[in-house]
Amino acid sequence: MKKLNGTLRKDRVKAQEVKFEKIKEIPKPEAWLDTKAKKRFKQFAELLIQKGLLTEANLPLVAIMAQEYATYEEATKNLKKDGKVLKLSSGYKQQSPWLSIRNSAFKNYREIAGLFGFDPISTQKVGKTEEPKEDDFAKLYEKYNR
Predict the structure, then answer these.
(1) Could you tell me which of 62, 58, 61 has the C-alpha nearest to residue 45?
(2) Which pLDDT tens digit goes with each residue over 70-85?
(3) pTM, entire model
Protein backbone atom coordinates (compact mmCIF):
# COMPACT_ATOMS: atom_id res chain seq x y z
CA MET A 1 0.00 0.00 0.00
CA LYS A 2 2.83 2.38 0.86
CA LYS A 3 4.35 1.69 -2.53
CA LEU A 4 1.10 2.68 -4.22
CA ASN A 5 0.87 5.87 -2.15
CA GLY A 6 4.48 6.75 -2.89
CA THR A 7 5.45 6.74 0.79
CA LEU A 8 7.48 3.53 0.79
CA ARG A 9 10.93 3.82 2.38
CA LYS A 10 13.36 0.98 1.78
CA ASP A 11 15.01 1.49 5.18
CA ARG A 12 11.69 0.61 6.86
CA VAL A 13 10.93 -2.48 4.81
CA LYS A 14 11.75 -5.85 6.34
CA ALA A 15 14.00 -8.11 4.34
CA GLN A 16 12.18 -10.83 2.45
CA GLU A 17 11.49 -13.69 4.79
CA VAL A 18 12.12 -17.24 3.70
CA LYS A 19 8.87 -18.88 2.66
CA PHE A 20 8.37 -22.60 3.15
CA GLU A 21 5.55 -24.57 1.67
CA LYS A 22 2.79 -25.26 4.15
CA ILE A 23 1.94 -28.85 4.99
CA LYS A 24 -1.74 -29.64 4.57
CA GLU A 25 -1.86 -33.26 5.82
CA ILE A 26 -0.58 -34.69 9.08
CA PRO A 27 2.86 -36.16 8.34
CA LYS A 28 4.15 -39.44 9.71
CA PRO A 29 5.82 -38.89 13.11
CA GLU A 30 9.58 -39.30 13.42
CA ALA A 31 10.64 -42.90 14.13
CA TRP A 32 12.67 -41.89 17.19
CA LEU A 33 9.62 -40.55 19.04
CA ASP A 34 8.15 -42.78 21.73
CA THR A 35 4.53 -43.93 21.49
CA LYS A 36 3.01 -41.11 23.55
CA ALA A 37 5.11 -38.51 21.74
CA LYS A 38 3.88 -39.81 18.36
CA LYS A 39 0.31 -39.29 19.53
CA ARG A 40 1.13 -35.74 20.68
CA PHE A 41 2.98 -35.07 17.43
CA LYS A 42 -0.19 -35.83 15.47
CA GLN A 43 -2.26 -33.59 17.75
CA PHE A 44 0.18 -30.69 17.50
CA ALA A 45 0.54 -31.15 13.73
CA GLU A 46 -3.25 -31.03 13.31
CA LEU A 47 -3.49 -27.79 15.32
CA LEU A 48 -0.67 -26.19 13.35
CA ILE A 49 -2.17 -27.26 10.01
CA GLN A 50 -5.48 -25.67 11.00
CA LYS A 51 -3.66 -22.40 11.70
CA GLY A 52 -1.51 -22.64 8.56
CA LEU A 53 1.72 -22.80 10.57
CA LEU A 54 3.07 -26.26 9.79
CA THR A 55 5.91 -26.35 7.27
CA GLU A 56 8.65 -28.80 6.32
CA ALA A 57 11.15 -26.56 8.09
CA ASN A 58 9.47 -26.68 11.49
CA LEU A 59 8.64 -30.41 11.59
CA PRO A 60 11.71 -31.23 13.73
CA LEU A 61 10.63 -28.62 16.29
CA VAL A 62 7.14 -30.12 16.43
CA ALA A 63 8.67 -33.57 17.01
CA ILE A 64 10.91 -32.28 19.81
CA MET A 65 7.98 -30.41 21.36
CA ALA A 66 5.90 -33.62 21.31
CA GLN A 67 8.73 -35.62 22.90
CA GLU A 68 9.22 -33.01 25.63
CA TYR A 69 5.49 -33.10 26.38
CA ALA A 70 5.57 -36.91 26.58
CA THR A 71 8.61 -36.71 28.89
CA TYR A 72 6.72 -34.25 31.09
CA GLU A 73 3.77 -36.66 31.28
CA GLU A 74 6.03 -39.61 32.12
CA ALA A 75 7.86 -37.67 34.83
CA THR A 76 4.59 -36.50 36.36
CA LYS A 77 3.27 -40.07 36.39
CA ASN A 78 6.45 -41.31 38.13
CA LEU A 79 6.31 -38.49 40.67
CA LYS A 80 2.74 -39.42 41.48
CA LYS A 81 3.77 -43.03 41.98
CA ASP A 82 7.09 -42.58 43.81
CA GLY A 83 6.69 -39.16 45.43
CA LYS A 84 8.86 -36.07 45.20
CA VAL A 85 11.25 -37.18 47.93
CA LEU A 86 13.06 -40.53 47.94
CA LYS A 87 14.36 -42.20 51.08
CA LEU A 88 17.79 -43.68 50.42
CA SER A 89 19.05 -46.91 51.98
CA SER A 90 21.31 -44.82 54.21
CA GLY A 91 18.25 -43.10 55.66
CA TYR A 92 18.81 -39.76 53.98
CA LYS A 93 16.11 -38.15 51.92
CA GLN A 94 16.74 -36.96 48.39
CA GLN A 95 14.70 -35.08 45.83
CA SER A 96 13.39 -37.40 43.12
CA PRO A 97 15.31 -37.12 39.83
CA TRP A 98 11.92 -37.12 38.12
CA LEU A 99 11.29 -33.66 39.51
CA SER A 100 14.20 -32.10 37.62
CA ILE A 101 13.36 -34.18 34.52
CA ARG A 102 9.79 -32.87 34.64
CA ASN A 103 10.89 -29.26 35.18
CA SER A 104 13.39 -29.45 32.33
CA ALA A 105 10.84 -31.01 29.96
CA PHE A 106 8.29 -28.33 30.86
CA LYS A 107 10.79 -25.53 30.27
CA ASN A 108 11.79 -26.98 26.89
CA TYR A 109 8.17 -27.60 25.88
CA ARG A 110 7.09 -24.11 26.87
CA GLU A 111 9.92 -22.51 24.93
CA ILE A 112 9.14 -24.42 21.72
CA ALA A 113 5.37 -24.12 22.14
CA GLY A 114 5.77 -20.35 22.40
CA LEU A 115 7.29 -20.29 18.93
CA PHE A 116 4.03 -21.70 17.58
CA GLY A 117 1.69 -19.52 19.63
CA PHE A 118 0.59 -22.25 22.06
CA ASP A 119 0.41 -19.91 25.06
CA PRO A 120 -1.67 -16.75 25.63
CA ILE A 121 1.17 -14.25 25.17
CA SER A 122 2.81 -15.79 22.11
CA THR A 123 -0.59 -16.32 20.47
CA GLN A 124 -0.77 -12.55 20.01
CA LYS A 125 2.75 -12.44 18.55
CA VAL A 126 2.27 -15.28 16.07
CA GLY A 127 -1.08 -14.06 14.75
CA LYS A 128 -2.58 -15.18 11.48
CA THR A 129 -0.34 -16.40 8.72
CA GLU A 130 -2.79 -16.48 5.86
CA GLU A 131 -1.48 -15.45 2.49
CA PRO A 132 -2.47 -11.88 1.58
CA LYS A 133 -5.14 -11.64 -1.07
CA GLU A 134 -4.16 -10.24 -4.44
CA ASP A 135 -5.23 -6.64 -4.88
CA ASP A 136 -6.57 -6.00 -8.39
CA PHE A 137 -5.47 -2.37 -8.31
CA ALA A 138 -1.95 -3.36 -7.26
CA LYS A 139 -1.78 -5.84 -10.15
CA LEU A 140 -2.76 -3.14 -12.63
CA TYR A 141 -0.31 -0.69 -11.12
CA GLU A 142 2.51 -3.23 -11.38
CA LYS A 143 1.55 -4.11 -14.94
CA TYR A 144 1.68 -0.52 -16.23
CA ASN A 145 4.43 0.94 -14.04
CA ARG A 146 7.35 -1.38 -14.65
Answers:
(1) 62
(2) 999 999 999 999 999 9
(3) 0.73
